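Hi, here's the filled form for the chain we discussed.

Project: internal
Contact: R.S.
Residues: 99
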Amino acid sequence: MSIRKGGGDKEARGVAEEDIAQVIKTYIVGQFLPEQPHAVIDDEDQLFQRGIIDSLGIFMLLAFLQERFQVEIQPEDVVLENFETVRAITRLIAARRPS
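And the returned structure, exactly as it came back:
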């Protein structure tokens, strides 16, 4: 499936973003909630406020995202608003993925 930026196929882009979100959720549950393997994280759950991810966890998540999605996350991208929810992380990854 090819995904085009800009005025590209919104349906194709939406499916890709759903896939990204699911991979992120699976990683977060496995890495940060191992005692709750069936936990459900919604796209808008506040990851820091709920105590799911802490300051050390953000570095683990960054390493995973860069390796799994082959993206380079810049230091200026590492702000709370880009990592406070799965939806925010998904948007960041989608914006940084090569076309």
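Let me know if anything looks off before we file it.
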